[in-house]
Write a structure and sequence with these properties.
Blueprint: E1 3-8, H1 15-21, E2 23-26, E3 29-32, E4 35-38, H2 49-53, E5 59-61, H3 65-77, E6 81-84, H4 94-102, E7 109-111, H5 119-133, H6 138-148, E8 152-157, H7 161-167, H8 176-180, E9 184-190, E10 193-200, H9 203-213, E11 220-226, H10 229-242, E12 247-251, H11 254-260, E13 264-270
Parallel strand pairs: 1-2, 1-6, 6-7, 11-12
Antiparallel strand pairs: 3-4, 3-5, 8-9, 8-13, 9-10, 11-13
Helix pairs in contact: 3-4, 5-6
């Protein structure tokens, strides 16, 4: 029996990666200027960044239990067991909806809370796809991913604290001192939640602080960005100079952009 891998578009996979890794990426949806949009693969969400940069507020919609059910049904009918790794349960109802849908399939669908978002989730999916190719059992893969969740971290510079506050994804009281001192807060995604991590003054200082935290034994490093191309490229170049592990630039999608702001950049790594 084959294992089919399912996630959502918050994982920021390109179309080619999804095809090569065998991942079914279910689109998240979002609303802007009175219109509903479907998020697609990384690098293909055109025309949205300028709208967010102009100050337009958007809202996002999790993948519904009904949509998960449709995907699970099609995959199970093909004789597969299904492993689903959605966006962190702390950041979206997508995980809860996946669990609701999976309950109808009598053990054929396993939903694992990724406790991750964006580039973090991409790192977990890449490992899962690798283990499926190696014909590891579902139990072996789930056990490894559960252990890996504590080894995958992200530190990032948010594009907008206001956007984070509106989305209710971070405790703004913890960041008030940084705002008063006019220094840029650095946040982390750790165990599925967004929290304050530090603060820096200027791009060089922030990059220095971020990279001090990255493990020298990192297996892979991803630089995620939504806008913020100069900062992200500088961060990427510093990683390439100082680490020998693979490093990639990852374009985040508009769903994360709506919540994090239109000039967001961060570093994610698997240690």
């Amino acid at each position: 029996m084959m294992i089919a891998l399912v996630s959502d578009t918050s994982a920021c996979l390109t179309r080619q990666e999804a095809e090569e890794w065998g991942v079914t990426c279910i689109p998240l949806h979002y609303h802007l200027q009175g219109n509903e949009y479907e998020e697609t693969f990384s690098g293909e969400n055109r025309g949205i960044l300028p709208i967010l940069r102009a100050g337009e507020r958007g809202r996002t919609v999790p993948v519904s239990a009904e949509r998960f059910g449709q995907v699970f049904s099609a995959l199970c009918e093909g004789g597969n067991s299904v492993l689903c790794l959605p966006l962190s349960s702390h950041l979206s109802r997508t995980y809860a909806n996946a669990c609701e849908a999976a309950s109808r399939f009598e053990g054929k669908v396993t939903v694992l809370d990724s406790l991750a978002a964006g580039a973090q989730l991409k790192l977990l999916l890449e490992r899962a796809a690798q283990r499926i190719r190696e014909e590891k059992s579902l139990t072996e893969i789930v056990d490894e991913l559960e252990a890996l969740r504590d080894r995958v971290r992200t530190i990032f510079v948010p594009g907008s604290l206001e956007a984070l506050q509106c989305g209710g994804l971070v405790n703004m009281q913890n960041l008030s001192m940084s705002m008063l001192l006019n220094i840029k807060p650095l946040l982390q995604i750790w165990q599925g939640e967004i929290s304050g991590w530090g603060a820096g003054q200027g791009s060089k200082d922030m990059i220095r602080l971020m990279l001090q935290e990255v493990s020298p034994r990192a297996e892979k490093i991803l630089i995620g960005r939504y806008g913020c191309s100069i900062f992200a490229r500088t961060l990427y170049n510093e990683v390439r100079k100082n680490w020998i592990c693979p490093c990639e630039l990852v374009e985040l999608g508009p769903v994360l952009g709506i919540h994090l702001g239109s000039n967001t950049a961060g570093v994610s790594w698997l240690a």
